[in-house]
Amino acid sequence: MLSEPATDLINKLPADCEIPRHIGIVMDGNGRWAEQRGLSRFDGHLEGRKTAQRVVEACASLGVEVLSLYAFSVQNWQRPTPEVEGLMDLIETALREELQALVANDVRFVASGRRQELPRSLQRILNEVEQETAGNQGLTLNLLVNYGGRTEIVDAARNIAEQVAAGDIFPADIDERLFANYLYTPDLPDPDLVIRPGGEMRVSNFLLWEIAYAELVVMPVLWPDFTTDHLIDAIKEYNTRERRFGRLPAGDD
Ligand code: IPE
Ligand code: IPE
Ligand code: MG
Description:
By secondary structure, the chain is an alpha/beta fold. Helix content is 42%, strand content 14%.
């Protein structure tokens, strides 16, 4: 499955380079890529799927712990029905076709989002791929489908409220740690690096709680044109950042 030997890719990074534990990607720009070529938006999504495969392989070989890929937002239902249906079919087909490769590459797959609102056949394959890869030890691939950051926070709040109403939690027990335990993937570390290809300087409802202190790298390249070299560049850029988490710069405290 690996398109580029792992050693070649890692050699493009300085030896002292820190690999982010968790990388999040807002996979944007498929539509513009297609329109520039006189193709349908769906052709852009097909090409974007190939990029996603390349990036999963690259992250697995670099030793990234978690890769979160934003595939379909709760707002994306507002697009024309043919595009929405095309995307649902594409995600389902991609998962079916990639399952064996994910297993072979020791990738653990998880899906985040309101999956009960997705087509039944897509729900089934999401569950199946999660189950088939649950014991894998390599990269965790977190696929965001019918995902919204605000929706995730609202869902957590509702679940906590139900526990409070049942008398299982006291309001005074609610703190950031407890709240985070009710998010979709409480076992994953927060993203360190968020990459947004397509040039838009916004987060578009992506992992709102979890990216509180993530480093953002916006790149003009459209997602279908995104290569492993762009990934390497984003990791290098991440390494130039000083993460302060509200503290003073290193050496000043
Ligand atoms: C793909 O890019 C992301 C999805 C919402 C599936 P877009 O379809 O948003 O592409 P642009 O932004 O119109 O170019
Ligand atoms: C964000 O891209 C959602 C995904 C990549 C799935 P959008 O294209 O939907 O975001 P906006 O509309 O530019 O904010
Ligand atoms: Mg877009």
